[in-house]
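About this split. The held-out portion is used to measure sequence recovery: a designer receives only the structure tokens and must propose an amino acid at every position. Recovery is the fraction of positions where the proposal matches the reference. Here is one held-out target exactly as it appears in the evaluation file.
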């Protein structure tokens, strides 16, 4: 016997009202599935989601018996979000209670409608959260770029932040080459970046016309798409390639690939990433202009100092030397001739040193240090803009001379990831970065060790009995 209409309608209303008291989508859909089984007396109920965007919800079902292999469920109705079908609400048979009725189907359609509404609302909420994250990320990148000291650090900041926002496997910056292709100049990835920097898209590739023209390119599977020609494409699946273009100037391309078999990018994610790339390109242009103005100001100061040294100091020193020379030639000056001679020699040497300084000031200032110490300091400076304070940085041992470039590149990738984690954790007010070499492994092998410790919430404690906070340790052999 099926339930009477009035009591069942009451229970249906109670089930629908219950779905409005929970913000967790999976819990809401679980209530709907349980309600479908209870109200119809079905042996089992399931919500099967066919839309790839809702893949994490697939397989919600009651603990009732499964239908026999190879047989269709006895009753199923589609679940729609607006005009889009995203899955099915299914019922298995009722043991000893006969087939499902029209009333059962109508009830199931009501529940399926509610499931569609819940999924649609969850999509809207997630879209709003995504927009908020991308807006915050864009603001953070702009702030960081306007405080960066060099172009390489600025590009690394863009690649890293975009990778985290897009939940991508890598964040990659490509620059046009003189031969008409594009080359990877910066790569941010939690995986091994070996072979990524320097990889090129060769001239003549079908995707280049769009990229060099400043058009975004969206790829379903990088490994199999014939337009992709880089030797690292086999590592990745869905990808976005977005122009970094501002004021008609193409700076490069931001690529955000996901792993093979990864979730495809949605239309909303594509739109938000494209907007991020446009804002990041503008920030890069502004940061470059700021650095240009600062360099010009430095050149002007150096020129002024050089002129002052030449016009004031050198001329006065030269005049003093001439006075001493003339004093040596006067009658009666023999008793102080040695002293005057030494004074003249000192003045000549001083004039030569000042002239050397003037020549040095007239040359362009030296580039920032390229050793590991300088590169680590640039990474911590970039993180300071996001943290709101400068991390404490220590170096133990000859890190610039003992650590080869291939190991240094991997250490910097680990450092970026650790600093990004610290930036994302709440309550962080202190970050300590230590680079040590030689650092021994448990097997007594010499290597280099990176340690990044913070005092944020949610950590499991650090080394040496520290309470709270998070400590990340990385080691590699030399």
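Reference sequence for scoring:
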């Amino acid at each position: 016997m099926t339930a009477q209409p009035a009591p069942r309608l009451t229970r249906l209303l109670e089930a629908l009202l219950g779905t409005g008291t929970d913000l967790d989508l999976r819990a809401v859909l679980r209530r709907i599935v349980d309600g479908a089984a209870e109200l119809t007396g079905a042996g089992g109920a399931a919500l099967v989601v066919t839309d790839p965007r809702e893949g994490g919800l697939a397989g919600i079902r009651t603990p009732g018996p499964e239908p026999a292999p190879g047989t269709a469920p006895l009753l199923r109705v589609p679940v729609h979000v607006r005009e889009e079908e995203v899955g099915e609400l299914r019922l298995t048979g009722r043991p000893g209670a006969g087939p499902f009725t029209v009333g059962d189907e109508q009830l199931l359609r009501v529940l399926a409608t509610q499931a569609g509404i819940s999924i649609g609302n969850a999509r809207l909420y997630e879209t709003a959260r995504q927009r908020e994250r991308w807006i915050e990320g864009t603001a953070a990148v702009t702030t960081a770029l306007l405080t960066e000291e060099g172009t390489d650090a600025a590009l690394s900041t863009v690649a890293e932040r975009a990778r985290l926002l897009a939940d991508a496997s890598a964040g990659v910056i490509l620059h046009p080459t003189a031969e008409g292709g594009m080359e990877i100049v910066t790569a941010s990835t939690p995986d091994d970046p070996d072979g990524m920097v320097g990889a090129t898209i060769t001239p003549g590739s079908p995707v280049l016309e769009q990229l060099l023209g400043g058009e975004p390119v969206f790829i379903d599977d990088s490994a199999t798409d014939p337009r992709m020609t880089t030797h690292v494409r086999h590592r990745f699946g869905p990808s976005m390639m977005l122009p970094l273009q501002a004021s008609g100037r193409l700076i490069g391309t931001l690529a955000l690939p996901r792993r093979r078999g990864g979730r495809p990018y949605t239309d909303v994610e594509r739109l938000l990433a494209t907007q991020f790339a446009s804002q990041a390109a503008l920030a890069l242009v502004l940061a470059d202009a700021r650095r240009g103005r600062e360099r010009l100001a430095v050149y002007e100061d150096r020129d002024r100092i050089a002129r002052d040294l030449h016009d004031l100091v050198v001329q006065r020193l030269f005049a003093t030397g001439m006075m001493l020379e003339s004093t040596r030639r006067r009658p009666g000056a023999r008793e102080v001739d040695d002293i005057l001679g030494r004074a003249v020699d000192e003045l000549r040497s001083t004039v030569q040193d000042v002239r050397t300084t003037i020549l040095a000031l007239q040359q362009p200032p030296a580039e920032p240090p390229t050793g590991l110490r300088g590169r680590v300091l640039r990474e911590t400076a970039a993180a300071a803009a996001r943290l709101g304070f400068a991390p404490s940085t220590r170096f133990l041992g000859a890190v610039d001379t003992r650590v080869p470039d291939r190991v240094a590149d991997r250490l910097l990738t680990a450092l970026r990831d650790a600093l990004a984690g610290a930036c994302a954790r709440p309550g962080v007010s202190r970050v300590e970065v230590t680079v040590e070499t030689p650092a021994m492994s448990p097997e007594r092998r010499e290597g280099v060790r990176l340690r990044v410790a913070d005092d944020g919430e949610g950590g499991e404690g650090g080394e040496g009995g520290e309470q709270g906070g998070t400590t990340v340790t990385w080691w590699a052999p030399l």
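Annotator remark: The first helix runs from residue 5 to 19.
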